[in-house]
Amino acid sequence: MTRPTARVLALLEILQTGGWFTVGSLAGRLGVDERTVRRYATHLTDLGIPVGARRGRYGGYRLSPGFKLPPLMFTDDEAIAVALGLVAGQRMGLGGPAHTGSALAKVRRVLPDAVSGRIESLLATADFTALPRQAAPPGSEVLLTLAAAARDRHPVRIAYTAWAGGTGQRVLEPYGLVFHSGRWYVSGHDSASGEVRTFRLDRITDAESIEGAFEVPDGFDPAGHVLAGLASVPYAHEVVVLLRAPLAEARRRLPRVVGELVEADGGVRLTMRAERLDGAARMLAGLPWRFTVERPDELRMELRDLAAQLLDDAGY
């Protein structure tokens, strides 16, 4: 690629970021004089790219609104960012492996050999400390419909499959979307229950925008609501423990999905749900603070058994 051709393409790359650019600013970024910038803009117009011009002392150029750009051009750093983003997203379960894999393959096919080789080396040697997540991606149309409804604040009618297998329709006022641990969730006012509920998007088989409007309650935190809901899943046991720790320190150590933390006399009261009390005992034993079990009594026995096992393992 000749140097002038590369600069013409560089001008197109600048213009496709959007908005007006003065001739002087373009000249500075391209390292040419203003007359050359005007010549490059003419070259783009000759190629059928609608470059809008504004005359005068502060005249400049922009791409005409509505123009569909040719295939995207990436700098080396941008190409690396796209490739890593796709790999990391797939690892986190953010998208289905088929879609992220095909997108990554398309990016690699259009890269120059030099850049492609460097990215291949990076992807072949890079590893992640976080364990891979099993993806549960929703349908793209469901995700985008709910996102638009949450942004524009209009209700949707959804078809939802409950965990027990029952299906039904309900009207939802979506307050926000949250991605957590490989799954997408939507929180909002549910017409069927009259309450704010959280739904998994991979269980929503259809979403349709309907007429209406709503307001999101002041201070509503979609991520906090989802985590609080996950922490209150009705597992077999409710565990209440008084932690001898400052509230701020407890919140830094324990994510909201673990349970509810409330300041109390002598420390912080942790209320959580657990399917197995031996698992709850091991989690509590790993905390750096002293604590008092308020309920259930069976948890005290699990902690005694765990303490005896640890002492035995240590040779006491």
From TrEMBL:
<protein>
    <submittedName>
        <fullName>Transcriptional regulator</fullName>
    </submittedName>
</protein>
<feature type="domain" description="HTH deoR-type">
    <location>
        <begin position="4"/>
        <end position="63"/>
    </location>
</feature>
<dbReference type="InterPro" id="IPR001034">
    <property type="entry name" value="DeoR_HTH"/>
</dbReference>
<keyword id="KW-0805">Transcription regulation</keyword>
<dbReference type="GO" id="GO:0003700">
    <property type="term" value="F:DNA-binding transcription factor activity"/>
</dbReference>
<dbReference type="InterPro" id="IPR057727">
    <property type="entry name" value="WCX_dom"/>
</dbReference>
<keyword id="KW-0804">Transcription</keyword>
<dbReference type="InterPro" id="IPR051534">
    <property type="entry name" value="CBASS_pafABC_assoc_protein"/>
</dbReference>
<dbReference type="InterPro" id="IPR036388">
    <property type="entry name" value="WH-like_DNA-bd_sf"/>
</dbReference>
<dbReference type="InterPro" id="IPR036390">
    <property type="entry name" value="WH_DNA-bd_sf"/>
</dbReference>
<dbReference type="Pfam" id="PF08279">
    <property type="entry name" value="HTH_11"/>
</dbReference>
<dbReference type="Pfam" id="PF25583">
    <property type="entry name" value="WCX"/>
</dbReference>
<dbReference type="InterPro" id="IPR013196">
    <property type="entry name" value="HTH_11"/>
</dbReference>
<dbReference type="InterPro" id="IPR028349">
    <property type="entry name" value="PafC-like"/>
</dbReference>
<dbReference type="InterPro" id="IPR026881">
    <property type="entry name" value="WYL_dom"/>
</dbReference>
<dbReference type="Pfam" id="PF13280">
    <property type="entry name" value="WYL"/>
</dbReference>
